[in-house]
Structures are given as structure tokens and as C-alpha cells.
Design brief:
Blueprint: H1 8-13, E1 20-25, E2 31-37, H2 40-47, H3 56-63, E3 67-72, H4 76-90, E4 106-109, E5 118-121, E6 130-132, H5 138-152, H6 172-175, H7 189-203, H8 208-223, H9 227-243, E7 257-264, E8 268-277, E9 280-290, H10 297-308, E10 318-321, H11 328-339, E11 344-346, H12 351-370, H13 372-381, H14 383-393, E12 400-409, E13 412-422, E14 425-426, E15 432-435, H15 444-457, E16 469-472, H16 476-488, E17 495-500, E18 506-511, E19 514-517, H17 523-549, H18 564-574, H19 577-582, H20 585-589, H21 596-607
Parallel strand pairs: 7-10, 10-11, 12-16, 16-17
Antiparallel strand pairs: 1-2, 1-3, 4-5, 4-6, 7-8, 8-9, 12-13, 13-14, 13-15, 17-18, 18-19
Length: 616
């Protein structure tokens, strides 16, 4: 639930006249529409002008907009590609959805072949080929492929070499001078690949030689009044111009990476993080950092990286930074150990990678200059609210708060949810859901005990970092369950209950056997409500998704190697899941269709505490 203050009229005045993508949110903070614009200022303002002739669908969308955000890009092309990425990711209800995920063409050079070809493709693969794009014009892509093939005499056939060498006569393309005929051995692999490198040079932006030649050919055709061929050369030049529009929103290396850049002034700093997954920019977050003194931008980046990646379950293998880290080797080693894979930092100096960092910096600067008042309000409702809760319950230095909830219908398909708020903001990458394994029937206390035990004993995927405060959805009973689990595990984590009134609304906190009143007008009240609502929403959504898959789902379905026959045998032998859980390996092995290996898998599933944190 979004409860922050957002004055649409004021925010419209701050929109920049630059290309980019705008993102509309409703009151639940769900993304309901994504669009692109040549000028964000002009496009977004049109939605909120009553005189505009909007369709009924768009009018309905606008009526549901609670707030909007935007990402600045360097060109309309980048905005178009980013819009496509975000629509595919979020599937907003008011966007017209494509059923086919293959949207934009790439140019592919089959460098995994002895004699490479140049092809058009709409699918990226990890196949050791070179990819360029994506591009938004299939015609321009086809024109460029034809131009490169003719210019450098590259093959267009599907023959496999050296197996097919000399098998058939050379094709027509050879006879008209448009192929060097590697099929006949008329050119060596080294010479041929030299021509391929020239084609790659062109696709990387070194195209002056070809454009000069096309202009010369166009002029010659025009001088002899051959306007048809002159027009063809003109169209080819236009395709070259189009292909030369580099964009960085989708990257053909398909790697996961984060882009981190900061903008600072005398007292404030905004750090922008771009998330690139599978080579695509799919989102961003910005973070406000208060400056203590004369920190440089490098100091800010260094401190941010250390704080941000603590407790983050997924860390990409590459983190691109605006400034090099002072402790790069130390932090890289720490994150590598933390994530289980090599994590490297890159501070790019040129090319597309540098442009990505510049784009992140541009967005950070925009937030810093345009949204100072909003940042102050945001800090009050997040960090300020956390500090207020900290003072009320007497627990210092609270940053990471974890809240839990249980959802079931009469005990069927019980599930648990864990949501994480860091400095008052949801950290959705850290959310986790649990399918209850050891509890039969509607026993919320026992289910909560299982969930908390599994969470607090799990020490991988970034969860070796413990919460500073556990928030329980309820009063004394739920708090006591959590405290008993914490004590049994030998931990020292404060536990606070979120007490509700008869109307199921937050009214107080329960801490150290005392009820602590909180003002309904205070930011701490709103934060507690957001946390409580988010934990409940996350549990309900997970439970609903499971009900949609099957009316009744057996926990046995989650055990590897236990198919329908063995499930039936186990239920016949032990009558219910509780009986199966209580049985030993020898007893399980005697059930119909079972053997000892399968019995050990069943036993381990129910008796390994750390088994399956997600519960899926």
C-alpha cells in the first residue's frame, strides 16, 4: 500500500523535457502502465489535462494513478527498448501485451563457424556468436545485412565446412561477384575472417568507408539519371544512419550486472542503481544518503556498496561503478564469498559501459535537483519513522526489519511470508515465502514456529545477516512464539508485535510485555501499517497462487523422486502427512512402491531444518 505524499500537480512541473520512460503506479503501488516519450514533460502532462481527448481505457487508467516515476534515456530509441523491457517484466494491466516475447531484431554473426555468416535474429543465445542490437526496424537490419554481404562477399548459404567443401558447384552469388565462394576453397579461412572483421568494425560504429562509397554510388546514379538505383543507395544510407544509433538499454552480452552512480551537492547525495538482468535494463532504485562532512563521490560510492550489498540475496557477477573503490580487492573478496560466485567491479572509461554509468548519473542528478523536498518527506516516512520506533521501544540502531505472516484456509495449504524493510523501505529481493511442512491443521502458532526456525537457521543466499528487529503480525501470543524460537537458537534479536484493533487496523506495538501506543497521525504508525499490510499481502498472494494450481496440494509433491505411485503408497500406509513425518526410514521403506533411497529422501525432507528456505 502506497501511503507517501505525492502531489501530482507539483511533480508534473518538475518533469524534464528529455526522452525517457514513465511508470504509473496505483494506490497499492502496483505498476499499471508504462509508456515512452520524446519529451517526458509534454507526454506525461497530457494525461492529466482534462481537455485532452483520451480513450476510455486511458481515462480509467489515469483515475487510478496515485503516483508516477520516470527514467531518463539518451534517445527515443533507448526509451522504446526500455519501455518494451519493462512491459514484459511487469505486465501492466493497461498496456496492450504482446503474446510473443521476440520483439526486436538483432544482427548475429556466427563466429562459432569456420566461415561466419551474418543473420537477422530475434533471439539471443549463449552460443559464442556476436550479437549487435537490438534494433527497432527489421527493414534496416535486413538492408544492412545485404549491404555487408555484398560489400565483403560473405556467404549466405547454410553449408557446413569443411564437410561441404567442393561438394557442389558455386552458387549464383559467386558468379555475380557477391560471394567469395568458401564452398569451393577459393578463399582461406584467415582471409575470409579478415573480411568478417571489417563487417564487425562497421557494426561497432566504424562505417565511414561504406557511407562514403554509398554516397559516391548515389551521386553517380543520379548523374546518369538512374533515379531508381539512386533511391536504393539513398535508402541504404538511411539504414546505415539508423543502425548507427547506438542504444544501451539492452546489451547483447546477456550478463547480469548492477550500475551504480551518485550525484552529490553540499549536504545531500542520491545514489542511483540500475538493474540489468539477462542483458536488459529492467529497473532502477535511488537511495538518499546524508553527508556527514566533506565526503567525495568516491567516498560515497565506497560506503554505499558496503552497506547496500549486506544481506542482499542476489549479487550480480559484475558491478559497474562511477568511481573505483578504495578497498576494491577486500570488498570484491567479501562479496565473492558472500554470493558463492566471483564478483568483480568495473569502472569503465569508454564505450557503451561508460554510457550506462553516465545514464545512471544523469538520473541520480535529476532526482537530487528536482526532488529535494520529496526526498525530505521520504526520509521522514522511512528513516525518520524507523528512528521513532527505535526510540519508543528502546532498541538502538534498527535498520533491517523482518515481518512474518501465516495464511491458510482451515489449515489447508498453510503458507508463511517474510517481508523485509531496510531503513523503512521494502527490500523486495529479500522477501521469502514458505510452504508449511510439519504442521497439520489450522495451527498458526506452530506454523509460525516452523517458519521462524527455518529462516533463522538458514545461513546461505545472503541470510547469514540477521534482522535488527522482528515484527510479528499480532500481540503477546505471536511475540512469545518468536521469542521462544530466538532463545532456543541462542540468538539475541528483539521482537516487537504489531497489535490490531477490532477492525483489524494497527493500534499499538507490543514489546517487553508492554503495549506501547503510537499516534495514528505519526509516520511510525504509517510504517508499521505498511509492514503489516505487506506481510499479509505477500502471504495471501502466495496462498492464492497455490490454490490456483491445485485445490488440494500435498506436501509430498515437493519431495524429489516421490511420484504419484509412491505418494499413494505412503498415504495408504500412514494415513496422513503427520504419520509420514513421524515415521523412521525403515518404516517408510516398507510402504508400497517405496525403497530405502526414496525413504531417506522423505525422511530428510521432513527432518532437515534448513531444507528449502523458499518452501517452493
Amino acid at each position: 500500500m502506497y501511503e507517501g505524499f505525492f502531489d501530482i500537480e507539483e511533480e508534473l512541473k518538475k518533469l524534464p523535457g528529455k526522452p525517457g520512460v514513465y511508470i504509473m503506479h496505483d494506490k497499492t503501488d502496483e505498476i499499471i502502465y508504462v509508456g515512452k516519450a520524446i519529451s517526458l514533460k509534454n507526454r506525461v502532462r497530457q494525461y492529466f489535462q482534462s481537455s485532452r481527448n483520451l480513450s476510455s481505457k486511458i481515462r480509467q487508467m489515469v483515475s487510478n494513478v496515485q503516483r508516477f516515476e520516470y527514467i531518463i534515456t539518451d534517445s527515443e530509441l533507448e526509451a522504446l527498448v526500455l519501455e518494451c523491457n519493462l512491459i514484459k517484466l511487469h505486465k501492466p494491466r493497461y498496456n496492450t501485451m504482446l503474446k510473443d516475447d521476440k520483439t526486436y531484431p538483432f544482427i548475429k554473426i556466427t563466429t562459432n563457424e569456420t566461415f561466419p555468416r551474418i543473420l537477422s535474429t530475434r533471439e539471443l543465445k549463449k552460443d559464442k556468436c556476436r550479437y549487435f542490437g537490438p534494433f527497432t526496424s527489421g527493414k534496416a537490419v535486413n538492408d544492412i545485412i545485404e549491404l555487408l554481404n555484398k560489400t565483403y562477399g560473405l556467404r549466405t548459404c547454410r553449408k557446413s565446412f569443411p564437410k561441404d567443401t567442393g561438394r557442389d558447384r558455386p552458387c549464383l552469388n559467386y558468379h555475380i561477384g557477391q560471394c567469395t565462394a568458401p564452398c569451393q576453397g577459393f578463399i582461406s579461412a584467415e582471409e575470409y575472417n579478415g573480411l568478417v572483421e571489417k563487417a564487425i568494425d562497421f557494426l561497432e560504429g566504424r562505417y565511414n568507408g561504406i557511407t562514403a562509397k554509398l554516397k559516391e554510388q548515389m551521386k553517380e546514379a543520379s548523374d546518369r539519371l538512374d533515379f531508381e538505383h539512386a533511391a536504393q543507395y539513398r535508402d541504404m544510407l538511411e539504414s546505415v544512419r539508423y543502425i548507427s544509433q547506438k542504444q544501451k538499454i539492452t546489451n547483447s552480452d546477456m550478463q547480469d550486472k548492477d550500475i551504480v552512480a551518485a550525484a552529490i551537492d553540499d549536504t545531500d547525495c542520491v545514489v542511483q542503481v540500475f538493474f540489468i538482468r539477462g542483458g536488459k535494463l529492467i529497473g532502477r532504485e535511488h537511495y538518499h544518503m546524508a553527508l556527514a562532512g566533506d565526503e567525495t563521490r568516491a567516498d560515497v560510492i565506497n560506503d554505499f556498496v558496503k552497506q547496500y550489498y549486506v544481506g542482499t540475496p542476489y549479487i550480480p557477477p559484475t558491478i559497474m561503478l562511477q568511481e573505483p573503490l578504495a578497498e576494491e580487492e577486500l570488498i570484491s573478496g567479501w562479496l565473492t564469498k558472500h554470493s558463492g560466485h566471483t564478483v568483480r567491479f568495473v569502472t569503465p572509461k569508454r564505450g557503451t559501459k561508460e554510457k550506462l554509468v553516465e545514464l545512471a548519473e544523469k538520473n541520480a542528478l535529476n532526482v537530487l535537483t528536482q526532488d529535494k523536498d520529496k526526498i525530505m518527506r521520504e526520509e521522514a516516512r522511512t528513516i525518520g519513522a524507523v528512528k521513532s520506533i527505535s526510540e519508543k521501544i528502546g532498541v538502538p540502531d534498527i535498520h533491517r526489519m523482518e515481518a512474518f505472516d501465516i495464511s491458510n484456509i482451515s489449515g489447508v495449504q498453510s503458507v508463511g511470508s517474510m517481508v523485509v524493510f531496510y531503513d523503512g523501505l521494502p527490500r523486495r529481493n529479500d522477501y521469502r515465502k514458505f510452504r508449511i511442512k510439519t504442521v497439520v491443521g489450522p495451527d498458526d502458532y506452530a506454523s509460525m514456529r516452523e517458519v521462524l526456525t527455518r529462516r533463522l537457521t538458514h545461513t546461505s543466499d545472503g541470510f547469514d545477516v540477521m534482522p535488527d528487529l522482528i515484527m510479528m503480525d499480532g500481540g503477546r501470543g505471536q511475540v512469545n512464539i518468536a521469542l521462544s524460537v530466538v532463545k532456543e537458537l541462542g540468538l539475541s534479536i528483539p521482537v516487537c508485535g504489531m497489535v490490531k484493533d477490532d477492525n483489524h487496523r494497527t493500534r499499538a506495538l507490543w514489546y517487553n510485555d508492554h503495549e506501547i501506543d503510537i499516534s495514528k497521525n505519526g509516520e511510525e504508525f504509517k510504517l508499521v501499517t505498511r509492514i503489516q499490510d505487506e506481510a499479509h499481502r505477500f502471504a495471501i498472494e502466495y496462498h492464492r497462487s497455490l490454490r490456483g494450481k491445485a485445490q488440494i496440494h500435498s506436501v509430498l509433491d515437493d519431495i524429489e523422486g516421490i511420484g504419484p505411485a509412491r505418494r499413494k503408497g505412503l498415504m495408504k500406509q500412514f494415513k496422513d502427512v503427520e504419520g509420514i513425518r513421524a515415521a523412521g526410514v525403515d518404516e517408510l521403506a516398507k510402504a508400497p512402491a517405496m525403497n530405502r533411497i526414496a525413504a531417506e529422501k522423505v525422511y530428510d525432507f521432513f527432518h532437515t531444518t534448513n531444507n528449502n528456505l523458499k518452501g517452493e
